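Here is one chain, start to finish.
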Amino acid sequence: MKLVKGSFRRPLALNGSVHDGEGGRVTELVARPLINLHFPALAGFVQPLAGEIAIERDLFRRLSVPVGYGVEIAMLIDCLRLAGLDALAQVDLGTRQNRHQSLRALSAMAVEVMVAVERRTGAAPRPGTTSFRPRPKLGGGEENGRLRCEERPPGVSAAVSEPAEYV
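Its structure:
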């Protein structure tokens, strides 16, 4: 295996009660539908945004890496392209109770995920993908959020000298 993704059950804690299978809103509403639409070979990955991975160093150095929330889905798609489905796996890590973010925060996260996927479909980059206008706050006032959609180039293309003991 060259890339192993962690997956786990994510219950949603809401008003003192726990709802199994209701966490991971960006995963279920954005990431999984986009994968099913554009990269169906990856549809078996339960949580493309779990945040826990293990990857071979040589493969990682070949990846372009988004700096925002698109990093993990981009990595999964790029590893499929570079190494093939047989080099990818997932492992069940049990249950994680993460803190849940506001819809405003999740909205920006969703856009970063969509930008990363769209770039990997071969679509031309869209202008204006560095700022984001969420719905207005209750009580008025608008503010634009800053998206993190830039990508770092693959490590193999960077002029990086490594310590001798790692060569």
